Amino acid sequence: MTPSYSFPDGFQWGAATASYQIEGAIHADGRGPSVWDTFCAHKHGVKTGESGAVACDFYHQWPNDIALMKQLGIKHFRFSLAWSRILPQGTGAVNEAGLAFYDQLIDGLLEAGITPHVTLFHWDSPQALEDRYGSWRSRQIADDFAEYAKICVQRYGDRVQHWMTINEVPCFTMLGYGVGAQPCHAPGTIVDSMKDVWQTVHHAMLAHGKAAQALRAYAPQPLRLSLVDNAAVPVPVSETPENIAAAQRAFQDAWCNGAVTYPALTGGYSPQFITNKSAAGELPDIADSDWKIIHQPLDSYGINIYSGGYVRAADNAQGYSDVPLPQGYPRLDMPWLNIVPESIYWAVRHIQAETGFTGDFFVSENGCAAQDEITPEGEVLDLDRLMFIRQYLRQTHRLCAEGYPMSGYFVWSLMDNFEWAWGYAKRFGIVYNIYETQTRIPKQSAHWYADCIRHNRVM
Ligand code: BG6
Fold first, then answer.
1. What is d(CA 45, CA 180) in angstroms, rounded to the nearest whole number?
2. Helix residue ranges per DSSP H, 267-326
3. Would you tell me how many other CB atoms lie within 10 Å of the CB of residue 43?
4. Which range of residues forms the domain containing residue 57?
């Protein structure tokens, strides 16, 4: 008998990271500043006043971190390239030392038998582009991002087959260009209206499309291309046909889904998004030819899933109502990190049902912050994180068991790192980092994850 929760052969077990969160070495080898360097230097930027200047010092520690991944049996590593290491001014002169850093990293991974999965952009826009034209506020960024994509794929495309254009469009657009409040993410620029905020979303989608075209055009070998989405996920409070239909309707309305997931996979906004934003006068300016550029063929779709909200059928105009969470609902160590494991399952079901996407899906990020402590014996017994990941992996397994094309799962994150506006106060790693000495301690969840990988099942 096959042990329960076994994954199909070839299922990709991985770990994910992002450049600004782990690399440090912000002044090394000609790197140009990014908007996150600037945001961290601002007194209203990061809650703790910290920055990614040193972070996990991955820029120097990477050989040890590769050895650690090898020891844990992690076969797939998702990391992002820092645009301003490669193009310090965002465009123009290429920084050879920056390119060489990722050469070494990629070669080191391959030597260790670990497959590199590259994200081109994980929020650290070159400051030079923010200064020059307001980065995502300008259409120009789409062309500049495509040029950067071309440089990267020409350099690394012989060794890297798995490419992701952009990580989580809503986070550096919606949360970076707040209206009427201090934005919680870089660049922290307050624009004039919600229409202007949606315009930055549109420019990011255009950049995704143009970069996807450049990656295909200049790749020296066939590649596997994806976008990484953090769709908002309505979960039916019970799985009756009525509640399922209600959750699917809610999916069209939720946060940025209508402006990100739908354009990427269908070539247009969701009907609800158009209705709602037209009524509010918030629809961005779009050239008709943009939709075709944005709607590029994708081989797979990355979903970053941490939480979700509950929905039930309702006899009202929208056909659903949100079910609020009670006071004591279980959550992990972020204010929004409510434990909703079914969100993984429903993300894939909704996206497939709504867009008809025929490629495969992978969980590009899932994990949680927890209040980790080192025991006197030097262990980190993060049974809360282990419980969290186990539940979400079981829902990933449910997708496989029901025949959905799930190709892999990347835990967020390999190690504790710079958690954006929270600084180092929040720990998301399966490996504990003592920042003062850059000592890595695999937590209980890392040992458990290694067992899952070894047995190809949820343990
Ligand atoms: C994702 C990001 O949003 O989740 C990561 O891709 C991030 O970079 C992680 O660290 C944790 O949470 P948050 O608060 O940044 O969403």
1. 16
2. 271-280, 290-294
3. 6
4. 12-455
Whether 3 is covered by a domain: the verdict is no
Q: 161 CB less than 6 Å from ligand 1?
A: no
Clarify whether 365 is annotated catalytic. yes
For the Cβ of 420 lying below 6 angstroms from any atom of ligand 1, the answer is: yes
Tell me the pLDDT band of 182, cut-offs 50, 70 and 90: confident
Confirm or reject: Cβ of 123 under 6 Å from ligand 1. Answer: no
Tens digit of each residue's pLDDT (9 = 90 or more) over 430-459: 999 999 999 999 999 999 999 999 999 999
Q: What DSSP state is assigned to residue 17?
A: -
Contacts of 403 (CB under 8 A, 6+ apart): none
Sign of the CA dihedral 34, 302, 386, 329? Answer: positive
Q: What per-residue confidence (pLDDT) applies to 43?
A: 72
* Residue 379 annotated as catalytic: no
Determine, yes or no, domain membership for 6: no
Determine the distance separating the centroid of ligand 1 and the alpha carbon of 368, expressed in angstroms.
Answer: 9
Q: Which atom of ligand 1 is nearest to the CA of 417?
A: 10
Torsion from C-alpha of 273, 338, 369, 169, nearest 10 degrees:
0
Tell me the three state secondary structure of residue 247: helix
Looking up tokens 């008998």 gives 1
Mean pLDDT across 249-274: 96
CA distance 307 to 230: 10
**DSSP, residue by residue, 102-114:** HHHHHHHHHHTT-
Structure token digits, residue 274: 């158009």
Residue 42: predicted pLDDT: 87
Alpha-carbon gap, residue 250 to 315, rounded angstroms: 14
Phi, psi torsion values for 14, nearest 5 degrees: -140, 180
18 CB within 6 A, ligand 1:
yes
- Inside any domain, residue 4: no
pTM tops 0.90, yes or no: yes
Ligand 1 centroid, distance to 79 Cα (angstroms)? 13
Residue 396 domain-assigned (yes or no): yes
pLDDT in tens, 38-86: 999 987 789 899 999 999 999 999 999 999 999 999 999 999 999 999 9
Q: What percent of the chain has pLDDT over 70?
A: 100
Domain at 370, CATH number:
3.20.20.80
Quote the tokens at residue 392: 């979400």
Q: How many domains does the chain have?
A: 1
- Residue 175 CB coordination number (10 Å): 18
